[in-house]
Amino acid sequence: MLRKNPSGDMPVVDESAFIDPTAIICGKVIIEDNVFIGPYAVIRADEVNDAGSMEPIVIKRDTNIQDGVVIHSKAGASVVIGERTSIAHRSIIHGPCHVGDDVFIGFNSVIFQTMVGQGCVVRHNCVVDGLDLPAYFHVPPMTNIGADFDLNTISKVPPEYSAFSESVVSANHTLVKGYRKISNAL
C-alpha cells in the first residue's frame, strides 16, 4: 500500500519495482528500478526535523527488502539503502543511516545511526548502533556493535559470504520478474 505522510509526501516508485500488496510504503520514499519489497515490510518517511523538513528514504536499484523489514528515520534524517543490497527478514533499519552497495543485512538485525560500507555482511541477530563499518567487514551472528566497539576484532568478508549475498540478490531479481508477471496477469 502506498500512502501519503502527514506532510503530504507520496512515495515515488519505479514501475519495474515489485511491492507486495501487504507492504506499507508511506511518505517521502524513493524506490528505484528492479527493487523487491516483500510481504509486510514497512518503509515510513513521515517524521520532520525541527525546521519542519525531512530527507527521503531511498532504496536504490536491484535491492531487496524482505518480509517484515522496517525502515524508518528519526526526525527526518536521511536513510539510503544501496544498490544490489539485501535486507533480510524482520530487520530494522533506522535513520540516520546509510547502507552501501552490495551489502547483506541478516535476519532480525538492527542498524541505527551508522554507515555500513560497501560489501559488508552483517549476519543474523546483530545490532550496529553508532559506529560506522568500513567496506567489506563481516559481522558474525549475534554481535552487538556500539560506539566503543573495537573494529579490529572483526575480519573481512570471507568469499563464501560474498557469493551468498550475490545469490540472494539474484534470487530476488527472479522474484521481481515473477511477481510482476503474476500481478500483470490479474
Topology:
Elements: E1 2-3, E2 12-13, E3 18-19, E4 24-27, E5 29-31, E6 36-37, E7 42-45, E8 57-59, E9 64-65, E10 70-73, E11 79-81, E12 86-87, E13 92-99, E14 104-105, E15 110-116, E16 121-122, E17 127-129, E18 138-139, E19 144-145, H1 159-185
Parallel strand pairs: 1-4, 2-5, 3-6, 4-7, 5-8, 6-9, 7-10, 8-11, 9-12, 10-13, 11-13, 12-14, 13-15, 14-16, 15-17, 16-18, 17-19
CATH fold label: UDP N-Acetylglucosamine Acyltransferase, domain 1
CATH architecture name: 3 Solenoid
* Relative strand content: 25-35%
Helix-strand category: alpha/beta
Question: How many DSSP E strands?
Answer: 19
Q: Poorly predicted ranges (pLDDT <50, ≥5 residues)?
A: none
Summarize the main sheet. 12 strands, parallel
InterPro entries: Gamma-CA, Hexapep, Trimer_LpxA-like_sf
Pfam family, one: Hexapep
Organism: Veronia pacifica
Protein name: Carbonate dehydratase
What does this structure look like?
This is Carbonate dehydratase. It comes from Veronia pacifica. InterPro entries: Gamma-CA, Hexapep, Trimer_LpxA-like_sf. Helix content is 15%, strand content 32%. It has 186 residues and is of the alpha/beta class. The chain has one domain: UDP N-Acetylglucosamine Acyltransferase, domain 1, CATH 2.160.10.10. The strands form two sheets. Strands 1, 2, 4, 5, 7, 8, 10, 11, 13, 15, 17 and 19 form a twelve-stranded parallel β-sheet that branches. Strands 3-6-9-12-14-16-18 form a seven-stranded parallel β-sheet. It is globular.
